[in-house]
Amino acid sequence: xxxxxxxxxxFPKPEAVRxxxxxxxxxxxxxxxxxxxxLALRAARAVYGAREAIAAFFNIDDPLRVIFTSGxxxxxxxxxxxxxxxxxHVITTSMEHNSVLRPLSRLQxxxxxxxxxSCAKDGALDIQAAERQVRANTKMIVCTxxxxxxxxxxxxxxxxxxxxxxxxxxxxxxxxxxGVLDIDVQQSRIDLLAATGxxxxxGLPGVGILYIGKRADVTPLKEGGTGSGxxxxxxxxxxxxxxxxxxxxxxxIVALHAGLAFIExxxxxxxxxxxxxxxxLFLDGVRNIQGLTVYGxxxxxxxxxxxxxxxxxxxxxxxxxxxxxxxxxxxxxHCAPAAHETIGTLQSGAVRFSFGYFNTEAEIRKAIDAxxxxxxxxx
Length: 379
Fold this sequence. Notes:
Elements: E1 2-3, H1 15-27, H2 38-58, E2 66-69, H3 72-81, E3 89-93, H4 98-109, E4 113-117, H5 127-132, E5 138-144, H6 156-166, E6 169-173, E7 192-196, E8 208-212, H7 250-266, H8 268-286, E9 292-294, E10 304-309, H9 314-325, E11 327-328, E12 330-332, H10 337-343, E13 350-354, H11 361-376
Parallel strand pairs: 1-11, 3-4, 3-5, 5-6, 6-7
Antiparallel strand pairs: 2-8, 7-8, 9-10, 10-13, 12-13
Helix pairs in contact: 1-7, 2-7, 3-4, 8-11, 9-11
C-alpha cells in the first residue's frame, strides 16, 4: 500500500509518537486537572508540557493562551463565533476550507457581513485588493496559510502587516501548514492561530489548538466542568480553563507533543525539502501523460497536487489507483468547493495527491506509472 493522502491525515506516524501514546495509555492516562492523585498530576504535567512546547514552536509568549480543542474545525468555529458579532465585517478568500466558510455562512444569518476575495487560478491573493475591501466595520481577516486543495501558500506576513496597519484581528488557518512551514505568531502579527494535530504535526486525529492573542476577545462556545472553581455556577475566567470544558484528549495531546519533538529533531527545513523533491519528481513524471491536467500547483506550493485524467473521472481514477495499484489518494471536492471553483474544477472535482515525509521516490515512481497505465487503459 502506498499512502499519498497526507493532506487529509499524515501516515504513518513517527515511532516516537507511537511510543509516547503507548506509554500514556499504559502508565498515566488519567484525567488531567481532575484529581490530586499521582496519575492525575502526571497527566496534568504532560498537558502543560505540551502547551509549553506548542508555545515555543509558534513563538507564543504565554503557554496559557494555547487552547486545546478537538481539531482545527473547532478552533476556527471558536475563533469566528467567539469574536464576530452582528454588524461586524470579515474578509476571507476563495481558497478557504469549509471549516471557515460554513461558520461564516452561519454568522451571515445573524448579521455578520462577509467578503470573499477571489484568488487567481494558482491561488495567489492580491494584497491591494484585500486592503480595498476594508471598511469602517471590518473586524477581522481570516485566511488559510496553505490550501488543502492545491498547496498554494498565502502571504500571511503581508496580511498580518495589513491587519496591524488597519487595526484588524488576523486569524490564520494553519491546518495544512503547521509542521511543514515555519510559523511565528509575533513576526506574522497573528492574533488567532488554528491548527490540527493529525496532519503535518504528526499527531493523532481528535486534537487541535487555538492560540488566542492578547488583542482578541473570544467568548467561549461551551461551558462545563473544568476542574477549577467547581463551586461557581458560572464558567471560570481563568486561562485556559474558560475555553476547555470537559475532559481533554490526553493521548492526543501527548501525541502532538511527541510530533513536535520529532519535527524539531528532524528539522522543518529537511521535511519541506524532502516533500518538495518528491513533488518535483511527481510533476516531472506526469508532465507527458496524455490527457492529464494538473491544477493550481506552483513551485512555491506545498506537496499537494490536484489533477484529472481525460478518460476517467476523479472518483473512478482514485478507485482504480486504490484497487489496482494500492495507492491511496482522495477524489472529490476536498471540503473546499470555493477553492475548486477558483481553479476551475467545481463540476469535475479532482484527484489529490499529497506527499509526506515518510514517502519515498520509489513510491512516487509507482504512482506515475499507475497514472500512465490508467491513462492508456492498461491493466
